[in-house]
Structures are given as structure tokens and as C-alpha cells.
């Protein structure tokens, strides 16, 4: 009986603490999202605590570092881009969808410095999240190339670099330049045509550095077994289809 009374009195006392912790975590995340959106990774953690109306110690109790807090605020946005690309992968008009997708990613990211930092590679939002984004983007690119809407010598590494370039150009456009104009000009460089500039070959990989056999992007070193040849599942599937076509299957 005594043990039952002890348990029942401890439980109500602990419940408000859990509720307060959830509320504080929500306040911190909300403040961090707006702070990172405005200032990117440069924002001090103390400023985030001030906006949330909590002490710095409260922030650290939920997030061990500013980088961990950044991941928590940005990862959902990057995953949304990834999920959207996957949903569009089977579109009936892959070329149009590909260019509209690139334009949308730039438009939604250019005003968010945190997202810009993530897409520019200043800080990886979360292990695997960047790889998933590249894989989904590669699938859109491949279908657009098959439809003849994107030149064949473009890789997913080229497209991600172009995205970063578009973000930079849109941020630096003059007051008389319409939003999206620089992105439209950049996207035209991906379109096939008779008078496009032939791209120079990618340089040979450095010693001990493995490059994807399809897109030329870096391949993570294999911990065990046979060394990996492709950077993502999309490139592996593309190589398999090309081998099958070569065999006449």
C-alpha cells in the first residue's frame, strides 16, 4: 500500500515538468527557424534563446549544440524537397516538371539563409538527408534527359552546383531585375540545342578518391566488402538500365 501511495504522488508532480519541457522545446524550435531563416548559421545561440524567451541552459538541455538545433530546423525543409521530387518522378511531362521543380526550390530557398547554407554545403543538415535529396533529384534529371528536355552530358552534380549558383545570383540581383529571371537564364544552359557549348570532361579523381561511374560525384568509402561504384541508388539503377539496353534486353 505504501508503495502505491508513493508512486501515485510522484506521477502528477512529474507530468507538468514534461509538459513544460515540450513547450520550451517548441518555443526554441520556433525561434530558431526564424533566426536561421534571417541570419543562417551565423546567428548566435544566445540570440535564439532570447527570441524564445528562455535561458541558454534550456536550449542546451534540448539541443547539445547550435549545429544540432540547425539540423532540427532545416532537415524537415530539405526532406520536403526530397518528398516532392519523389512524387513528381512519374510525371507525364518530365521536362517541364524538372525545370519547374528547380525554379521552385530556388524560390523557396532564396529568402531562407538557413536553407541556403544547407544547399550550399556549408553544413550538412543530417546524415543521409543530403544523399536522399540528390538521389531524388537524379531521378527527375534522368527522366527529363530521356524526354529530350535536358542535355545528356549534364550530371546531378552539375544540377546541384547550378542550384547553388542560382541562389547566389537571385540574392545578388539588382533592384530592377525580376525575381526568377536569373534562374530562368541558368536553366536554359541545361536545355539541348545545336549551338550549346560542349562541356569539358571532369578531371580524373585524385588518388584514393572514388567517383560515381554515372554522375561523377564523390562516392562514400565502403567500410566492408566490394568498393562502391555509384553515389546513390538512382545512379546504380541508371547504370543497370544502360547495361540492359546495351545487351538488347
UniProtKB/TrEMBL annotation:
<dbReference type="Pfam" id="PF21597">
    <property type="entry name" value="TetR_C_43"/>
</dbReference>
<feature type="compositionally biased region" description="Polar residues">
    <location>
        <begin position="1"/>
        <end position="17"/>
    </location>
</feature>
<keyword id="KW-0804">Transcription</keyword>
<keyword id="KW-0238">DNA-binding</keyword>
<dbReference type="Pfam" id="PF00440">
    <property type="entry name" value="TetR_N"/>
</dbReference>
<dbReference type="InterPro" id="IPR001647">
    <property type="entry name" value="HTH_TetR"/>
</dbReference>
<feature type="domain" description="HTH tetR-type">
    <location>
        <begin position="22"/>
        <end position="81"/>
    </location>
</feature>
<dbReference type="InterPro" id="IPR036271">
    <property type="entry name" value="Tet_transcr_reg_TetR-rel_C_sf"/>
</dbReference>
<keyword id="KW-0805">Transcription regulation</keyword>
<feature type="DNA-binding region" description="H-T-H motif">
    <location>
        <begin position="44"/>
        <end position="63"/>
    </location>
</feature>
<protein>
    <submittedName>
        <fullName>Helix-turn-helix domain-containing protein</fullName>
    </submittedName>
</protein>
<dbReference type="InterPro" id="IPR049445">
    <property type="entry name" value="TetR_SbtR-like_C"/>
</dbReference>
<feature type="region of interest" description="Disordered">
    <location>
        <begin position="1"/>
        <end position="21"/>
    </location>
</feature>
<dbReference type="InterPro" id="IPR009057">
    <property type="entry name" value="Homeodomain-like_sf"/>
</dbReference>
<dbReference type="InterPro" id="IPR050109">
    <property type="entry name" value="HTH-type_TetR-like_transc_reg"/>
</dbReference>
Amino acid at each position: 500500500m505504501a508503495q502505491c501511495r508513493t508512486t501515485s504522488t510522484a506521477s502528477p508532480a512529474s507530468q507538468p515538468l514534461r509538459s513544460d519541457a515540450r513547450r520550451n522545446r517548441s518555443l526554441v524550435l520556433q525561434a530558431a527557424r526564424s533566426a536561421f531563416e534571417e541570419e543562417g548559421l551565423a546567428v548566435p545561440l544566445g540570440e535564439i534563446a532570447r527570441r524564445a524567451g528562455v535561458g541558454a541552459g534550456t536550449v542546451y538541455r534540448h539541443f547539445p549544440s547550435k549545429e544540432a538545433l540547425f539540423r532540427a530546423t532545416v532537415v524537415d525543409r530539405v526532406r520536403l524537397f526530397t518528398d516532392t521530387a519523389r512524387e513528381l518522378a512519374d510525371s507525364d511531362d518530365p521536362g517541364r516538371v524538372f525545370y519547374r521543380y528547380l525554379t521552385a526550390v530556388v524560390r523557396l530557398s532564396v529568402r531562407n539563409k538557413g536553407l541556403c547554407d544547407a544547399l550550399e554545403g556549408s553544413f550538412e543538415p543530417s546524415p543521409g538527408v543530403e544523399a536522399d535529396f540528390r538521389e531524388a533529384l537524379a531521378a527527375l534529371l534522368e527522366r527529363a534527359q530521356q524526354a529530350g528536355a535536358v542535355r545528356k552530358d549534364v550530371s546531378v552534380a552539375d544540377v546541384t552546383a547550378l542550384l547553388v549558383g542560382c541562389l547566389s545570383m537571385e540574392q545578388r540581383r539588382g533592384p530592377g531585375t525580376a525575381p526568377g529571371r536569373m534562374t530562368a537564364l541558368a536553366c536554359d544552359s541545361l536545355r539541348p540545342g545545336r549551338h550549346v557549348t560542349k562541356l569539358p570532361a571532369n578531371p580524373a579523381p585524385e588518388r584514393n578518391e572514388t567517383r560515381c561511374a554515372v554522375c561523377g560525384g564523390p562516392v562514400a568509402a565502403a567500410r566492408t566488402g566490394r568498393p562502391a561504384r555509384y553515389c546513390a541508388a538512382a545512379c546504380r539503377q541508371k547504370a543497370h538500365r544502360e547495361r540492359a539496353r546495351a545487351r538488347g534486353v
